[in-house]
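Form 12-C: Joint structure prediction
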Amino acid sequence: MAYHLNSFDALVEQFRKLPNIGGKLAQRLAFHVLSMSDEQARAFADAVLDAKRTIHYCSVCGNLTDSDVCSICSGPKRDRGVICVVASPSDVIAVEKTREYNGLYHVLHGLISPADNVGPSDIHIKQLLRRLESDEVKELIIATNPTVEGDATAMYISKLVKPAGINVTRLAFGIPVGGDLEYADELTLTRAIENRREM
Amino acid sequence: MAYHLNSFDALVEQFRKLPNIGGKLAQRLAFHVLSMSDEQARAFADAVLDAKRTIHYCSVCGNLTDSDVCSICSGPKRDRGVICVVASPSDVIAVEKTREYNGLYHVLHGLISPADNVGPSDIHIKQLLRRLESDEVKELIIATNPTVEGDATAMYISKLVKPAGINVTRLAFGIPVGGDLEYADELTLTRAIENRREM
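Section 2 - Result
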């Protein structure tokens, strides 16, 4: 009852290795590839190889880029006085989507996490300090997640940088817009009360 | 505030075109590709191209194969007296997974659906009739889904084939194993009662 279909199975297996893709979806995606035109399949494969070949980290901020310095760091209209510190390149995309922030970024590529043996020297903190040596930067917005690791990293950077006279802020935590008090967890509600604003 | 990262965006876009993959997951998959080694990315791209290049329809049953005749049709141990008729190659995989069926298959590549302008000549029924011209086949198991289209197709084939003295059966419909009477829909329950068996 052997049922061999090697290159199809191989493709299903490749899709299965991707995050959030189980067996059923992997099979469906493989069938979809077979239903593509030759040009479409080629474009898909090329996109994988092109991205892998051309995208690397910006030498200044650590964000993803296809040139030496990313388009944000080299953007003439960006405010060079503010740096938003994030854990990963996907956070840069999230903040950019708000279209509210016009400063620079610094990607840490991780968060301090003693439980996972990740110390301050394992993430891009040294690179951040080097950027602060110029007098241009006036404010650091720490946009790490409100988790144990995000809090620890924010604290660590804040203590290191504040003595140099740089203003350090962190994203506000509170009830999500459109959220419901009744369903907010206690920690979020506590933070929302602590950070209440006059109106 | 322009944020250009062309080959990364292109990859996200390619993932978004796949079925069941939304914007967030597409982005996550693209980041995953960047985290792959060069060899892994190459293997992934090659799997897409290899499958697309080598997989086509079996000239006998219409199933997917990388040779002229698929491994089921050419399998020496398969029972050539039974043909299981299915709508698509993914149904072949589903039936094979039961490890209970040892006959051949015929893939229709669609179902009769007047609403979508799909008639009997648009799916692989002619190819099925040609296979029945030899005297070898004793039974046709129609394994189309219990939908309007699946029912219509099953009926059509059954009427066409029965006069030739071939035994035509269809998969049993009823309560799914592990299912709950209380939650079975009325149609399924009706079919389960109609098809009740002595015990």
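Section 3 - Comments
The helical segments of chain B are 6-16, 23-35, 38-54, 89-97, 125-132, 148-161, 186-194. The radius of gyration of chain B is 22 Å.
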